[in-house]
Amino acid sequence: MEVVLADALLARGGDPGELLRAVCAPLSADRAEALRLLLQRLAAGGPRGEAESEALRRAAWEVALERCRPLLRLGDGAAGGAERLRLGRAARGALRHCVQLCGAPLAARLARDALAELAGGGPGAEAAVEALAAAAPRLEEPALVARCAAVALALVREESEGEAAAALVAGRLLPALGGNGLALGRVWDGLLGGGPAPRAGRALLALSALADALLPRGPGAAAADARLCPRFWRLVQEGLTERDGLCRKRARYLLKRAVDLSGGQAACLRCPPDGRHGTAPWWGENEKLLQFWETYILIMETLEENQIHVIKPVLPKLNSLYELAISGKEGCWLFHPSWHMCIYKRMFESENKTLTKEGVLHFLELYETKHLPNSLGFSEFVIGPLMDALSESSLYSRTPGQLMGACPPLGMRLQKFLTTYVMLLPEEEKGGFLLKFIQKMTNRHWCAVPILFLSMALAYIPTCKVLGTDGLHALRDVLQCTMITHQILLRGAAQCYLLQTAMHLTDVVSGKSNIKWIELEAFLNPLLDVLMKLGSNAYIPTLKTDKSLQLLLKLLQTRSLKCSNTQDGYLTKTKILHVLRLFLCEETSSQGWGRIVARYVRDQWICLRFVLNKFPTLAQEYEEGTSELSLTAKRSREILESALEALTILPSDQVLPVFDCMRVLVPKLLNSLECLCIEAFDLAWKIISSLSNTQLIFWSNLKAFVRFIFDNEVLAAAASAKGQAYAKIKEIILKLIDMSTTKTGVFNVVLSHCCQSWILPTFDNRSAVRNAFLNAGNYCELITEGCVFGTVFRRDQSTNRDDHYVRICAIKFLCLLDGSNILHKSFMEDIVIKLLEKDELVSRSRTRYYANSLQHRIKNRVWQTLLVLLPKLDQKFLCGILDKVFQAGFGNNQASVKYFIEWIVILSLHKYPQFLNKFWDCFCYDEEKLKTSICTFLSVLSHFDTILQNTSEKKPILKKALLVVLQWCFNHNFSVRLYALVALKKIWAMCRMLDVEEFEALTPVIESSLQQVENMHGTGNARRNWQRIQDHFFFATFHPLEDYSLETIFYTLPRLSEVAEDEWISLCKFERFTDIPLPPAFQWYRSRAELLDLKPSDWSQQDTGSSSVDADGQTEWTDVQKKIIPWKHSTPSSDLEMVLQDRAAKLGKSNSRLIVVASLIDKPTNLGGLCRTSEIFGASALVVGSLHYVQDKQFQHLSVSAEQWLPLVEVKPSQLVDYLQQKKTEGYTAIGVEQTAKSYDLTEYCFPEKSLLLLGNEHEGIPANLIHHLDVCVEIPQQGIIRSLNVHVSGALLIWEYTRQQVIKHKQQK
Where in the numbering of this chain does the tRNA/rRNA methyltransferase SpoU type domain appear (predicted)? Predict the structure, then answer.
C-alpha cells in the first residue's frame, strides 16, 4: 500500500525535486521514511529526459548532503531511543538511493567527506562508515577506492577501535567495497593477503558477507578463490574454536560453502603450502575427501547442541575421520591434524563438563587404538588445550561400582597415553616435550587431584634420561610452587610420583648435565629445614625427622659412589657433613626437653590407666572403711584435675591415655562434681574439633573421645541426674552430627560404638545389660538421626562420599530388637513417634520439595525405617499411630514415599483387618482435600487380596470395597480414574471367584466398563497410559508379603521408583558391615528375582495434596477447561469466498505491522503452528519458502484453517537478502531470533511498530550470511540445559511479546 501511495504521489506531484524538498522540511522520522520511499521509487523508475534527470540529480544531491548526512550523524548510536534509530535507518536508505540517482560524483563527494571525518577522529565514526558504505559501490576513481579500502581495513585491524564501529566496517563497508570491482582486490589482500590479519571475529563477519565474491561458483573467477589462500583456512579454524557462538556459526558457514563449491566442481584444486602449519586442505576428484568434510561438519554442528545424549552417538565418527585423513600408503597426514584439534578444543571448552570429559577420554585413546603419524601440532595441543582441560578436578571422578582408592578411568587413560606418546616421539623431541609438559604444571595454580594424576602419569613413563638440569628445576618448581596448600595425603602421593619421575627421566650424573652442589642444596632445602628445627621444636613428629635423616644418609652414600670426580665427591660430602655438624652440635641445653617431658607425662598416664582399670577390684578390699572410700573420691578428683591440666600441655597425638583415664573417673564424680566433668567434656571436644583437618591422628583421638563420652557408665550417670552434663552430652551429639556432614566417617564411629555397647555389651551381668540398653532410650536421637542421615552433595563431592554405613548400622541395630522385650518395645515405639514427627516437620517445611531433594530423601528414609519396624509393633500402638500414617498419605508425596506409605498401610491391614473401618474413613473426606492423593488409597485397594488373606468373612468387606471404588471410577481426573479402574479390576476378580450374589445386578455394567477400558481406541494417550499403569511394578509384580526384605526396602524399590542412585543401599553393604551382626535365623534379606530383574517404569504418579492448592481463586469451575470462543468475529460461511484482505477487514482485525518471515523453516508442522499463532495475534503477513506447504495435511492439521484468514507471501530462501533490504527501506526493523554476542534479552527489548521477525531453520538457525543484514538479534532467556527451543515455540513467544507491547502502547495512547 505504501508503494502504491508513493507512485500515485509521484505521478500527480509534478516536479520530483520540489516534492522531495517539500517532504524534507521539517524532517521527522515519519517524513524521513516517506523521503526514503520516494527516492526508492524514483531510483527504480524508467528513463527520463535530460532536463528532468538533471533536475532530479540536483535535488537528490541536495537531499544527500543537506538532509541525509546530518541525519546519519543524529542517528549515530542507539542511545537516543527508537525515534533516533528510525531516523538513522531511513537516512541510510535514502542516501543509498541518492547515490543511485546521482552516480559517481556524489559517491566521490560522500567518500571524501567521510574519509576526512574518520581522519579527524571525531565522534561521528559510525555515520562516516555508513556514508562510505552507501558510496562504495559507485566509486570510480582508483585512488579514492584505494584510500577507502585502506581506511576500512585499518579500522578492522585496529584493536583499540570501538567494537561497534569495527563491526559496522566489517559487516557493511567491506561488503559494499567488495561489490566494487576496483576495490575487491584490495579487500582480498587486506583480509587474506600477507599483511597483518584482523581479529578473527571481524574477519569472519566480512568474509561471510563477501562469500559470493570470494567463493565464486563460476570457473572463470578462480583468481579470487578464497580456498587457495592459507589465511582463509586459518581464520576458519580460529572461528571454529572461538567462544563466541556467532563466530563459530560464521566459520561453519564458510566451511560448508567451500565444501559445497568444491564438491560441485569436482576439480583438482591444491592450496599453496603454508609453512609448518599446513592447515589448508586440498581437493580433487576423490570422494574420500568430500566424505571427510561431510563428517567433519556434522560433528562440529552436533557439538553446538552441548548435550551429551545428543553428542555421544556422533563421537564414533571421529574415528572414521582419522581413517579418512591418513594416507595408508605413505603413512602421512592428508589433512593437517589441526583440523582434528579444532573438534577436541571445542569439546574441552564446553560448559558441559560431561562433554569435556568425553572429549578428553576420546583424545587420550587415540594413541592406544590408532597408529598416527608424528606431528608437531599434537605436542603443542597436548601442552596447551589438553592440559588446560585436565586441570578440572571433576573429570577424575570414579565410575559407579569402583572401590574407593581405585584409579579413575581418566587417570588410567592418562598414564597409558603419556607413556605411549612419549615412546613414539623421536628421541630428539622427547626431552623438549617433557620439559614443556612439566613447566606447564607450574604456570598455574593446579588443584591437588589433577596434579596427583599428572604426576602419576609422568612416573609411569619408562626410564629414559632425557631431562637435564632444566627438567630437575621444573620438577622442583612444581613441588615448591603448586603443592603448598594441598591436602596432605594427596600432596605426599604426588611428591612421591614427582621424585620417581626425577629418578626415571633426569640425567644429573653424566658429564654433559652435571648438577652443581648449590642446586642440590636448594632442592633439598625442605629436608634440611626439618633437621635444623628438631632442636627448637619440641613437638615435631619423630617420623618426619627420621625419614629426613635416612634420605640425607642415602644421598651421601649415593653421591659418594656415583661421583666420578674424587675432589667433587669430597666437597659434596664435606658440605653435607657440615650441615649435620650444625644440626648435631647445636646448643640444646634448654630447648630439647619439651619433647622428653611430653613423652614422660604420657607414659605416666599409661601407667595410671592400668591402675584405674584395676581400681574397682582394689576398692572392694576396703569397703568396710569409709575413710578409705572418701580418700578414694578425693584422689579421683585430684586425678581428674591433673588430667585436665595434662590435656592443656600435651601434644594432640599423646592424649589417648588421658581420655581413657577420664572415662573411668567421670562416672564416679559426675553426681558430686558435675561442673568439673562438664569442663572435661568441653576440653576433650575442643581437642577433637581442632584436629578435624589432621588425618594422621584425628581418627585415633576421635575413637578415644567416643569411648570416653559415650561410655555406658558416663551416659547412665548423666541420664540419671538429667542435669547440665546430660544437656552437654546432647549438645556434643549435635556437634558430632554436624561435623559428620562435612567429614565422612565421624558419625560412623559414634553410632557403631553406641550400638555395640547398647545391644552387645561385653559384660555378662543381666542388670548391667539392662542398664546399657536404657542408654539407648535416653539418647534415642542418635538412632533417629542415624536412620535419616545423609546429605545431598555437589556432583564434584559426591563421588568421594559414602554415608550409607551410618544408616546400615542404625537399621541393623533396629533389626536386633525384640518386640517381646519391654525395654526394646518402649524404645521402638519412641523411635516410631519421633520419625513420624520428623516426617510431619519436613512436610510443613517451606523448603522446596522436589524429586531427589534433601526433603524427599529424608522422607524416604523415614518411611523405610518405619517399614523395618512395622512387624515388631503391637496392635494397640499401631492403632494409635495409624491415623498419622493415613494423614501422611494425604500429603504431597514423591512416588517412592507414596509406595512406602501404601506398603505400610497394606501390611497393617493384613495383620489387623479390624483397622479397615479407619481405612474406609479415608474415602469420606471432601473432594477438595483428597484431590489426586486419593490415588494412594486406591493403590492400597489394588492389593486387596493380600489384605483379606487372613479374613474369614470376605464378602461384606468386598461389598464395601466395591461400593467405595466405583464412585471414583467416574472422577473427572484422569489419573484418579486409572487408579480406580485398576482397583476395580482386582476387586471384581475377587468377587467373581467368591460368587457374590449381591452383585449380579452390577455384573453387566462393571464387566462392560472393564472391557471397554481394555479395548479403548480413544484419542491421545489414554490407552497407552492404561497399559502402562497395569504393567507398573507396584501393580503387576510387587507382592507386599513375599517381597518384604531389606533388599526390597533399601535397594529394589528406590531403584524402581527412580530415586537417585546414591540412595540405593545394596545388600552387599549390609553384609560387609560386620560390627553389628544379624542373627543367623534372620530371613528378611533378599528380594524375589521377579522384582529384582525389573527396570524402572515410565509411569509415575505424584500426589498433590491439599497443601498445594492455592487458597485464592478457587471456584466451582476450577477443573473445567474453558476455550476462548471469538463469537464476535463469527462470519457466515458464504463470506469464505472473499479475498484474504477483505475477509480480515470485515472481521475487524487490528492492522498489525508485524511480518513473520519463516522462509528458512521446512517442516510443515512448525509452519502450520506458526500460521495459527500469527493469525491469532493478528500478524500482517506470514512469509514462507513455498506456498505448496499449505496443501500439506500436517500443515492443515496444526493450522486449523488459519491460512484462510492470514495473508501468506512466498519468498524463497535465496531471495531473502533482497526481501530484507526491501522491507528495511520501507521502514521495517529486521529482527532475528538468534543467540549472538550482542543479542538483546527478550524481556528488555522494545519492539518497533513496524517489525519484521526472521526465524531460523530448525537445525541450523539463521545462516551467517543473513545475520549481518539484520538490525538486531533477540534471544529468549533460558534457565535449563537444553540449548534452544523449538522454532515454532520461539516464534510464538516473540509474536506474543510484540503483541503485548503494542496492546499496552495503544491503551496508553487512549
Answer: 1154-1295
